């Protein structure tokens, strides 16, 4: 899964942002690996979120807020999503 984060490592409402937290879990939900990664498609005004998510083969995207266009884009690319206020 991947989580959109701000410069302080907090979950953000952005979609095509410049930083993400990539988390790999095993089948039991145990965290195996966490890594902060940068979006190479980030231009300052556009992040090309789906292009980035597809490039890292993400199975689930987590953000603080998702608009209808983003949800449609995620569904169209078979990417699961979840809206959360904070990271546990």
Topology:
Elements: E1 2-5, E2 19-25, E3 31-38, H1 49-55, E4 60-63, H2 68-76, E5 80-83
Parallel strand pairs: 1-4, 4-5
Antiparallel strand pairs: 1-2, 2-3
Any descriptors?
single chain, 88 residues, alpha/beta, Nucleotidyltransferase, domain 5, five-stranded mixed β-sheet, 2 helices, 5 strands, 31% strand
> Globular, elongated, flat, extended or rod-shaped: what is the shape?
globular
* Text of the CATH class: Alpha Beta
Low-confidence stretches: none
Report the radius of gyration as a whole number of Å. 12 Å
Distance between the termini: 14 Å
Approximate strand percentage: 25-35%
Count of helical stretches: 2
SS elements, strand count: 5
Strand order in the largest sheet: 3-2-1-4-5
Order of helices and strands: EEEHEHE
Written overview of the protein:
This protein is of the alpha/beta class. Helices cover 18% and strands 31% of the residues. It has helices at residues 49-55, 68-76, and strands at 2-5, 19-25, 31-38, 60-63, 80-83. Strands 3-2-1-4-5 form a five-stranded mixed beta sheet, with helices on one face.
How would you summarize this macromolecular structure in one to three sentences?
This protein is of the alpha/beta class. Helix content is 18%, strand content 31%.
């Amino acid at each position: 899964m991947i989580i959109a984060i701000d410069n302080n490592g907090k979950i953000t409402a952005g979609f095509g942002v410049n930083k993400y937290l990539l988390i790999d879990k095993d089948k039991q939900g145990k965290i195996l690996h966490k890594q902060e990664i940068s979006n190479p498609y980030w231009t300052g005004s556009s992040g090309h979120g789906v292009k980035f998510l597809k490039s890292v083969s993400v199975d689930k995207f987590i953000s603080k807020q998702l608009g209808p266009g983003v949800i449609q884009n995620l569904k169209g690319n078979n990417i699961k999503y979840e809206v959360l206020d904070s990271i546990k």
